[in-house]
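Dear all,

This email documents one entry for the complex benchmark we are building for the journal club exercise. For each entry we list the sequence lines for every component of the assembly. Then comes the predicted three-dimensional structure of the complex as a C-alpha cell string, followed by one or two observations. Please use this as the template for your own entries, and keep the labels exactly as they appear.
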Amino acid sequence: MTDENRQTASADKKKLWGVISASSVGTLIEWYDFYIFGSLAAILSVQFFPQDNPTAAFLSTLATFAAGFIVRPFGALVFGRLGDILGRKYTFLLTLILMGGSTFAIGLIPGYATIGYWAPALVLILRLIQGLALGGEYGGAATYVAEHAPAKRRGFYTSFIQTTATLGLFLSIGVILLTRKAVGETSFVDEWGGWRVPFLLSLVLVAVSIFIRLRMKESPMFSKIKAEGTISRNPLKESFGKRENLKMVLLALFGATAGQGVIWYTGQFYALSFIQKTMNIEFVQSNYIIAIALLIGTPFFVLFGHWSDRIGRKGIMLCGMLLAIFLYRPIYSQMLQLSDLKGKTELSDAGSLQSSTSQISGSSDSLTVSTVSKRYSDGTAYHEISRQRFTAVKKAPAEVKREITLSDSSFWMLVLLVSIQVIFVAMVYGPIAAFLVELFPTRIRYTSMSLPYHIGNGVFGGLTPFIAISLTSMPGASPLDGLWYPIVIASICVVTGFLFINKASFKTLND
Amino acid sequence: MDSIRKIFGFLWMAGAVLLAVSLPYFAIRRLSSAAATQEDYVFWIVIVTIFIPIIIGFLLFGYYAFRGEYNDNKPPVR
C-alpha cells in the first residue's frame, strides 16, 4: 500500500468512527430519555397520575401501554417513510429533537396538585411523542451506520449502535441513583424535587448530540440512489404492499425480532422487576445489581457483532435464544434461592420489633405501624414494615413492605446471574442491526427494518413484564411461571429462524 | 428442508387462527367479569388492537411458507 492509499484508508476509518459516534451518542440519549420515564414511574404516578383519581389513573395506564405498544410501531412507519424519502440524516435528527424536547418538557410540567388534569394530559401527550420519536430513531441510526460500513465489518460497526439501548438504561439508572444520593430521598420525591433533574439533563445531552449530528453528511448509499433518481416514491406501499418485500418483513419479525425482544426485556427489565418484587431486594441494591450486570455485558454486544461478520448472524442470534430457552428457569430458580431466608441462620441478638399506633387526623381511625428487622449469619438483612388501619368496626388488610439487603457474596452471585442474561441479550441483539439492514434494499430500508424491529422489541418485548406477572398471579402458579412467555416466543422464533432464514436473504445491502 | 418448511407453514397458519379466536375470547371473558377494572379495559383493548394485525401477519407468514415462498430455490429478495 502506498503512503497516499494509507492516508486515504486512515481518513476513511476516522470518518467511519465519527459516523458511529454521532449515531451512537444520539441513540443512547434517546434510549436514556425513554427509560427515565419507566425508571421513575412510581414517582411520576404520585406527581402526575394519582391512583385515587380514576381519570388520572386511566391516563397513566394509557401512557404506559400506548407509548410502548402502539406509538412505537407507528413512529417506525412515519419516520421510516420520511427517512426513505428525505434521507437518513435529517430524519434521525428530527427524532432526536422530538425526543429531547419532550423529555425536557416533562421535567418542567407542574404536578397534579398544582394544575390538576392538565398535568396528566400534558405528560401523556409528551410520552406519546417520546414513543413516536423512539420508533423512528433506531432504524435511522442502524441504517446510517450500516450504509457507511464496509460489508465485511458491518456486524462489528453496527454493534456499537446495539450497545446504546443497554447503555441508555445504565445511564438512566446511574443518573437517577446519583441525583437521589445528592439531594436526599425526601427532596428527590417532592413536586419540584430531584426527580426532575434526569429529565432536565436531557436538554444538555440532546444539544450536544444535535451539534455532532449536524456536522455529519448523508449516507453514501442514500446519496447515490438520490443522485440516480431511484428513491422510492411510496416506501410504505413498496415495503408492505409488495409480496417479495413483505415476506422478508414477516421473516424478520417472526424469525428474529420477536425472540430478540423477549430475550432483551427478560434479561434487563423482567430481571429488575423479579429482583425487586419477587425477591424483595432493596431498591438501591437491586439497581446496582442491574447496573453492574449491564456494564459487564455491554462489551459482549461488540464481540458478538464482530463474530457475526465471521461466522454469520443467524447462528449467534439463534444460539442466544436457545441458551435463554434452556437456562432461564435454572437461572431464576437460583436467583430465588438467594433471597430465600428459610435456609439462613438468624442472629437472635441482632433483630428488633417495634410497633406504634397513632390516631389519623380528622378521623376516628387509627394506624398501627410495625417494623421488624432481622439479621442473618451470612450478612443478609431483612426489614419489614407493616401498616394496618383500624376503623371503629373492622381492621383493614395490612400493607406489608418487605426488603432484603443481600450479603456481599449473594450480591455478586446475583450480579453474575443477571450478567449471564445480559450476555444472552448481547448474542441476539449484537448482530441484529446488521441482519435487518441486510434484508432490505436501500430505497425502502429505513421503513422496512423499523417496523419489524419495533413490533418485536416494543410489542413482544415490551409486553414481557405484564404477561409474565399475569402468569405468575394465576391460581397455583409459581414465581417462575412468568418465564413461559419469553420461552415460548423465543422457541417459535428459533424454529422459524432456523428453518426460514437462509443466506440468499443477505444479498440486498450492496444494491 | 422444503417439506419441513411447508409443514411448519401449515402449523403457523393453524396457530394464527387459534390465536385470532382465543385472544378476543379471553379479552371478552376478562372484561365481562365483575372484577374488571379500567386498567383491564385499556390493557385488553390495546392488546387486541395491536395483536390482531400481528396475528394476520403470522397467518400470512404461514401461508407464504406453505406456498414455498421461502424455499431454497427461490431467487434472492428484490
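Observations: The interface with chain A takes residues 1, 4-5, 8, 12, 38-39, 42-43, 46-47, 49-51, 54, 57-58, 60-61, 64-65, 69-70, 72, 74-78 of chain B (CB under 8 Å). The longest helix of chain B spans residues 2-31.
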